[in-house]
Amino acid sequence: MPETVTAKEYTDFMALREQMKKGIEEADSEFMLVTYTRLLAALNKRQNAANALNIKLENRNIAAIKKGKKEALSSAKNRDDE
User: In terms of CB atoms within 10 Å, which end of the chain has fewer, N or C?
Assistant: First the structure.
């Protein structure tokens, strides 16, 4: 799974989800209702996976920032102790 999603990809994805919702509302047969429902469920799974990945990436970035900050504070403290 890619680690980034462009703004256009996100917009296209959300438009596709809206199309599936509209399809559910306008379905005139059980077949189409089930089809749109399953497609929306698949899109929801992809969105959840993307959200989970985004959280992991944010946590990784926060951990890197914390590590750098901790090292900077530690070295500043060591300089003050001398």
Answer: C
Q: Which residue has the tokens 């599936």?
A: 20
- What is the DSSP track for 14-36? HHHHHHHHHHHHH--SHHHHHHH
pLDDT by position in tens, the chain (length 82) = 566 778 888 889 999 999 999 999 999 999 999 999 999 999 999 999 888 888 888 899 999 999 999 999 988 888 877 6
Question: CA torsion 26→48→57→74, rounded to 10°?
Answer: 130
Is 42 strand, coil or helix? Answer: helix
